[in-house]
Amino acid sequence: MTHIRIAYKSIIIGLLFFILIRPYAVYGAETREIGKEIPRKTAQEYYRRGLEYDKQNEFKLAIEQYDRAIAVYPEVAAYYLKRGEAFFKNKQIEQSIEDFTKAIEIQPENYEAYFDRARSYVAGNQKDKAIADIKQTVKICTDTIRINPKNTEKYINRGQVYMLLDDYDNAVYDFSRVIEINPRSDDAYVRRGIAYGMEYEFDLAIADFSKAIALNSSNDAAFLLRGEIYFFSERLEQAIQDYSNVIRLKPADPVAYAKRGFVYMMSEEAKKAHEDFQKAKSIDPQVAESIGWRMAVSGISYSHIAANVPEKDDFDKFLLRDIKEYFNANQNAEIKYEFLRKGPDQIGVSPPDYYLWVEINDNGNRQAGAMRVTAISKKTFGISTYLTKEAIEKNFSDVYKIFPLTVCVKIANKI
Predict the structure, then answer these.
(1) Over the Cα atoms of the chain, what is R_g?
(2) How is the chain split into domains, by residue range?
(3) pLDDT at residue 345 in the model
């Protein structure tokens, strides 16, 4: 069943993955030292055509162009990386793994190739290999930072990997280091604002987006993201203002029109909503429909979160109470927990789930393990799954059946 994260997460990840999370891709960069000029230009032209087909979701045609580029210059990792992505999108998983592996052979320090291969391993149900590649991705980024601790791009690279792993605390750390090194980096403030938003620290996120705008009044991403938070915080007038600023900066952006139209609809301004939806459709019908659907579904998801998650002051109290009851522990038992993923997962219309690592000491009887709990009616947490550390060590494959892969990575680190 498809996971639908709480509103802010489900929209932001889909909307800005390729805009903000992966802008430092190395596609095409390796051609700078690979032989004669004419063949190089020929390969690059095939590669460029492949990128254009990719943008149009014509993956088979893109693959044909990448094939030609590779035939001319088979030593270029970027060509294999992009063809592997096209294979993946075309559901040719084994071929994508082969291409990512070839990219790694050519360029062993290419962290993107490891991460992309991990994604293919997940799709191919080879999750042990996926976790190994994810760990290698982080290691490569960390090693490059050790070599050059003042290089802001390296922190950005590692931060984006942490974002993709739902490890927002570490992502915040890396983007904060960029800000320390370069306090005028509006991009770093935007990235850290996203990470704060993923952790539900909306006030901190708004502050970062606002700082980015103060540094660069043309940063349309900062306006767009701040508008998202204003919308989900029911500050509709401010959301409209931010979406309007995006439209001012990017008059042909269907996303901003669709989002502003949705907010106008929520504000019962039907005429303005209709005008914005029509404008979005005239620019890109698919994007307009996708944005409207996401915002509607996310609104439903958010309503389930709000209806079931306890208030902030009660959350810890209720959770510890129900964990203690699950273990039938004494009142003086010591229980510690940490989130394996901050914030709830919303699955369909079910109550929201949380993933925890729990440690308990009940009169010297110690145990630890991974737990999935469900928030119910703002007053109760139901424990649906608990795997002890010993059980996990004995058969890790059971973990994959219960927890998302990014959570599995954290569980693997625990043991």
Answers:
(1) 23
(2) 312-414
(3) 79
